[in-house]
From TrEMBL:
UniProt keyword Isomerase, yes or no: no
UniProt main location, coarse: membrane
Membrane topology qualifier: Multi-pass membrane protein
Organism from which the protein derives: Metabacillus malikii
Name of this protein: UPF0295 protein J2S19_003053
Entry-linked HAMAP family: UPF0295
Pfam families referenced in this protein's UniProt entry, alphabetically: DUF2614 (PF11023)
Length: 119
């Protein structure tokens, strides 16, 4: 079975990292418009905003990490963190769950969404 999901914390981290890159690309593009002061300023500001946003996301990961439950993965025996009802091991991508009812079932990220709707 192909495991296309990755651990949530890793996913957010990838997102934050891509924001940094996007920010730098936007600022780099601004250099091409250096003849036009205003356009360049707008590009620089957008790039800055993107980098600031990534800092915020990184901060948010830190907050999430403290709330995540630390467990030892039964598959690779390394400590990993679970966010929500189902998540994946950060090291071997083994699907993990805190809910006994879901044990043995196929990994589905929708379990997290269903729980959110009920609350
Ligand atoms: Zn593992």
């Amino acid at each position: 079975m192909a495991r296309k999901y990755s651990s949530k914390i890793n996913k957010i981290r990838t997102f934050a990292l891509s924001l940094v890159f996007v920010g730098f690309i936007i600022m780099y593009l601004g250099i091409f418009f250096r003849t036009n002061m205003w356009v360049m300023t707008i590009f620089m500001l957008l790039g800055m905003l993107s980098i600031i946003a990534s800092t915020v996301v990184y901060f948010w990961i830190g907050m999430l990490s403290t709330k995540a439950i630390q467990v030892v993965c039964p598959s690779c025996e390394k400590p990993t963190k679970i966010l929500g009802r189902v998540d994946m091991c950060m090291h071997c991508r083994e699907p993990l769950t805190l809910d006994r009812n879901l044990e043995g079932k196929e990994f589905d990220e929708n379990y997290n969404r269903k729980k959110m709707n009920m609350e």
